[in-house]
């Protein structure tokens, strides 16, 4: 994302509309800009821009937001005369959206070529927040007892319980007083108790900014001071916090949080990759600020979402830690943003509005006028280039905290040291595991493949078991006794005979997944306590927390995991990390395959030797001379990234040039291809712009949809949004064919 694009509009004071005037209301619907409505008499001068309102919409009611007039969006179609406009129905009792948020919505819409309505939908994702908040009836003592009230020991017990002044619900009072609910109600009827209907949404406890963090080292202090200074000063300022794993980045950005929270009513947002939102992180936060933060991600239940959304809007929620969608919460007074693990590929949203949360966090900070810290041990190439160009201030942490040092790295050349047939661990790695276990220390084995085996093949006829609706193999999950498609979720039992030639006992599992590795490990190290950590085995945050506790507490010896184990955990007794297939991410590589594999392996390696005991990392590779493996061995990530940058610069690849992917899909292959050809025919011909395709996507079919891709490649100065919008609008596809535009694509599948 280019910095020029980040320019702000001119601030205009919001003005509420008079009765009878026209207001624009943006509704959370795709394909819609703001629509015109009339201000009814009763709402004169109350409908300020940003107000959340209910309006009539083709016979039903919809929630929308009064949209500022000076923005790019304009209602489609002709302007209706005032008297034909429907009136706004009511104003919802939540604080209006600030201009920082309405502008952010406009910005994301313009950048991603999504409708404003589709972006707004992400801000209004909690319908329950706009209804009445349920209340529960509580009772408290009346200020004076009514004259002549008959007292009994039971009644006296109730009054005694409530003597502290705290309102309580009838069952609680009854149980504390040892009486029946009826006694409580009787007292209320007699006028001795007053009933209070209290919202079920309790306010969030406020963080304590007087607690002190740990004593920071020299370089940590320097980084923390820079961030604190920027937060104190206010105003947009982006930082790259580039520190090796275990160097204390979290402690450093906590200082920024602490500074931001000093001021009354300010709010902070910490974005993390969804799976990095660990119990360990939350415990550290609680230790530092005395409360748990508001947590926001897809697993949070409806009631809690309503409570959180409203509290963010009123400013009552001071700290939000969340996955990418937290960017679209209606903060009242956002004072600081951190994006932790900023390089993480999961920040790119691949459905609906295709945006990159790291980039958009910088835009959000700019609109809110606050500092933003992008933290990582392996900053993305895009961020590094922004830092090189002086757009981001770089804060470096070069040392691990305390006596911990970075682990020793070694490659195992699998051509010279192959594992025995049907096994996946080389003799060297097996020996290292033995020694580590003998020393009473822990081992982590990393293999980024869920299930037992990625492919099931018939030995007789060569048939491969595929998903019925995707061009993908089904993955065997032996723990669950199923075959599963990792693209659409389709599941079926493992067949006894080959579906094609019907041979019995002819199906073989090919290649390893973590479950198969588990089989090998438990066979080789039958005494060791071994566990598998994947998104299949750890369905809930509490399950994850339990396993993490077991590892940290030394109740497990070997952990086998997918990328879920790479994120941010701190296990002091873990000293050996074995990367079972260091080449895995490099195969079939796209633009960022090398960079991503490097980042992932640095993160896994970073789990080893985080405390007093030094760590060791073994990388099993069939190509140890590959630059990624070499960069890990030499520890010279800078040189590796410099080579990556040079290569991208030479070919004008992002961020030195621009890419836009156009993905066409539909149930009929011929129709999809037809739209592709039509697009190719009217493709823009312009110097510095190349277009390839339509070509069948590498995943030609997902969920029964046939897929073709086109890729637009442009020199950096070209305004691709305008170009692509004009281009795509020239083709009117059949309604069965979907055209998806992906600005800055990360997936090329
Ligand atoms: P990173 O986020 O860079 O991987 P962390 O912030 O998780 O690093 O720090 C690694 C470990 O070192 C954590 O357990 C953290 O509490 C500890 N730590 C870091 N800095 C300090 C410090 N100055 N004093 C005490 N403990 C520290
Ligand atoms: Zn067969
Ligand atoms: Zn499928």
TrEMBL record:
A GO CC annotation given for this chain: primosome complex
Binding site for Zn(2+) 1: 458, 461, 498, 501
GO terms for MF: 3'-5' DNA helicase activity; ATP binding; ATP hydrolysis activity; DNA binding; zinc ion binding
InterPro entries: DEAD/DEAH_box_helicase_dom, Helicase_ATP-bd, Helicase_C-like, P-loop_NTPase, PriA, PriA_3primeBD, PriA_3primeBD_sf, PriA_C
Cofactor list: Zn(2+)
Residue span, Helicase ATP-binding domain: 230-397
GO biological process terms held by the UniProt record: DNA recombination; DNA replication initiation; DNA replication, synthesis of primer; double-strand break repair
EC number: 5.6.2.4
Residue span, Helicase C-terminal domain: 493-648
Positions of Zn(2+) 2 binding: 467, 470, 485, 488
Catalytic activity: Couples ATP hydrolysis with the unwinding of duplex DNA by translocating in the 3'-5' direction; ATP + H2O = ADP + phosphate + H(+)
A Pfam family it matches: PriA_3primeBD
Gene3D superfamilies reported for this sequence: P-loop containing nucleotide triphosphate hydrolases (3.40.50.300), PriA, 3(prime) DNA-binding domain (3.40.1440.60)
Co-factor: note: Binds 2 zinc ions per subunit.
Keywords linked to the UniProt accession: ATP-binding, DNA replication, DNA-binding, Helicase, Hydrolase, Isomerase, Metal-binding, Nucleotide-binding, Primosome, Zinc
Family listed: Belongs to the helicase family. PriA subfamily.
Subunit structure: Component of the replication restart primosome.
Purpose of the protein: Initiates the restart of stalled replication forks, which reloads the replicative helicase on sites other than the origin of replication. Recognizes and binds to abandoned replication forks and remodels them to uncover a helicase loading site. Promotes assembly of the primosome at these replication forks.
Protein name: Replication restart protein PriA
Source species: Kordiimonas lacus
